[in-house]
């Protein structure tokens, strides 16, 4: 896709037209066949996941395979980074070895920002700290669009749980309103972001929030990101979602979850086993959305990738000793 960013760090790197093209291409890939793939050469993609992952990493690997590309798992902990090499030089090495893209997940927030002016290699953010998870938000948007048959404007989504520490929440807050979707954040006070974008509501009562939503997006408690230990033993009683609560609301409300779900805390097993549980559909769609993203980045026409050299004039102002040193 000409003009698609070479570094996808967050939703703001994309405009609406690019997102709409991704959604359309995802649909083609999902219903099509490998013969329809337009890539004219074999691509090579490295993944570097410095945090644990099941869904994101494996769906990217499956996407690469379906694109008939080569995948290498780059283990940063066993690389020359441990010998003092800079991250930029490591990424340049991957580029000159022939890799087209590096997909990175890291605990460090906005790690990719430093490379946007001079990309050493094309890069996709697989989730960075508590900042963003743009590819997850894009596959969620695709799944919502599929669920509501393309009628997104005016739909209401309740995001419930640990919103502060959820990078996908930060991406969803930037993406969904572009398509007319209203967002309500719901959860304990300490789980709500201190800064909430204009137009996004909050509700401290889950049952009330459910009465006014078309879909609910559950989040797990990200205990590994809390400075103080959070007591999860009482969370389910007040904030856990189950079929009984949905029955009380009196409407069938589809339930999204980015995974992994902590059954017995934010959701119960009966709901997970019901046809309201959309997490499996999200996982299914994740492969095709990530295929579309990789394809768009590879075909973006950007030639400004790799090392940039200063021109050295050896004939100007060099003494004999300096020449010998050269």
From TrEMBL:
Specify the protein name.
Aspartate carbamoyltransferase
Which family does the record claim for this protein?
Answer: Belongs to the aspartate/ornithine carbamoyltransferase superfamily. ATCase family.
Please name one Pfam family that this protein belongs to. Answer: OTCace
> Which InterPro entries does the UniProt entry name for this protein?
Asp/Orn_carbamoyltranf_P-bd, Asp/Orn_carbamoylTrfase, Asp/Orn_carbamoylTrfase_sf, Asp_carbamoyltransf, Asp_carbamoyltransf_Asp/Orn-bd
**What does the UniProt record say this protein does?**
Catalyzes the condensation of carbamoyl phosphate and aspartate to form carbamoyl aspartate and inorganic phosphate, the committed step in the de novo pyrimidine nucleotide biosynthesis pathway.
One Gene Ontology MF term = aspartate carbamoyltransferase activity
Q: Give the catalytic activity.
A: carbamoyl phosphate + L-aspartate = N-carbamoyl-L-aspartate + phosphate + H(+)
Task: List the pathway annotation.
Answer: Pyrimidine metabolism; UMP biosynthesis via de novo pathway; (S)-dihydroorotate from bicarbonate: step 2/3
The answer, when asked if Transferase is one of the entry's keywords, is: yes
Its taxonomic placement starts with: Bacteria, Pseudomonadati, Bdellovibrionota, Bacteriovoracia, Bacteriovoracales
Q: Which PROSITE patterns has this protein been placed in?
A: CARBAMOYLTRANSFERASE (PS00097)
